[in-house]
Design a protein that fits this description.
Blueprint: H1 3-23, E1 30-34, E2 39-41, E3 45-53, E4 61-67, E5 71-81, E6 86-93, E7 96-102, E8 106-116, E9 131-139, E10 145-156, H2 158-179, H3 185-199, H4 203-260
């Protein structure tokens, strides 16, 4: 093989490598949510739409599975082509569903969920209670399953939300007081009791204790600031006395010197 032929072959291989690199791997399936709440009140209705793009990037056929902890649920599965036109739709009731997908010209799969936030069995402050809004899974032939994505939210009642807000405000006030050098032991004690009351679902008591913690922290901070102002004022007065005294002493020395002359 002459050198000229070898050079052409090398150039061809390099060009092929560059083409492959430019094309890169095919885009994988992904999911996103529109209108997914981070928190929702118990008893309220929730509606969210999930969009799955490139559903057949890995497999020609598979089953879309969805689960939720909402109640009174209706799922609506819609298939769209690359131009955005709807090509299929089907609805399911219940906290889970399975929808078989076959490779077609479907570019997107949209899943809409509508349901109601259920009662919460156990409220906790930290970590905050959490419920599953939706979990979407890819189930393949043979039963193997892989999660596509999942979304959670924090359920609350009016009373629990008021208590949580009061505790958060108390925590912020305690931190501010600590940063200023004020003592916060009493406030901290009320704050911890408020969290215990919250975990026991005694939200009225939790709110009262948290409010006391905030008041004590703010009072301690104000008292500390006043003490510091008094100290600064006393130091300033002392400095003034020293300056004035020094000046009077200097004047007195000058008067004595003039008399001797």
């Amino acid at each position: 093989m002459n050198s000229n032929h070898s050079s052409k072959l090398l150039a061809l291989l390099l060009a092929c490598t560059l083409v492959v690199s430019a094309v890169g791997p095919a885009a994988a399936m992904s999911a996103s949510a529109s209108g997914a709440p981070g928190e929702a009140e118990v008893g309220s209705d929730v509606s969210t739409t999930f969009t799955i793009t490139k559903p057949f990037s890995d497999y020609d056929s598979w089953t879309l599975n969805g689960t939720t902890e909402l109640t009174g649920v209706t799922w609506t599965v819609e298939l769209y082509d690359q131009g955005g036109a709807k090509i299929d739709q089907k609805s399911y009731d219940g906290q889970s569903f399975d929808h078989d997908l076959e490779k077609s010209d479907a570019y997107e799969v949209k899943v809409q969920i509508e349901g109601t936030v259920p009662e919460v069995e156990n409220f906790t402050y930290d970590p905050a209670q959490s419920l599953s809004l939706a979990e979407l899974n890819q189930v393949r032939e043979g039963g193997s399953s892989e999660a596509i994505d999942s979304w959670d939210f924090r359920p609350y009642t009016e009373e629990s939300d008021d208590a949580r807000s009061a505790i958060e405000n108390a925590e912020e006030s305690i931190e501010d007081a600590e940063d200023s050098g004020a003592g916060v032991s009493e406030a901290q004690s009320n704050y911890e009791d408020a969290i215990s009351a919250f975990d026991g679902e005694n939200f009225g008591l939790a709110t009262d204790l948290a409010t006391k913690a905030q008041d004590k922290a703010e009072s301690s901070q104000q008292s500390n600031q006043q003490t510091q102002m008094l100290l600064y004022g006393g130091a300033g007065l002392l400095a003034l006395v020293v300056v004035v005294g020094g000046f009077l002493w200097y004047r007195n020395q000058q008067d004595d010197y003039d008399k001797l002359r």
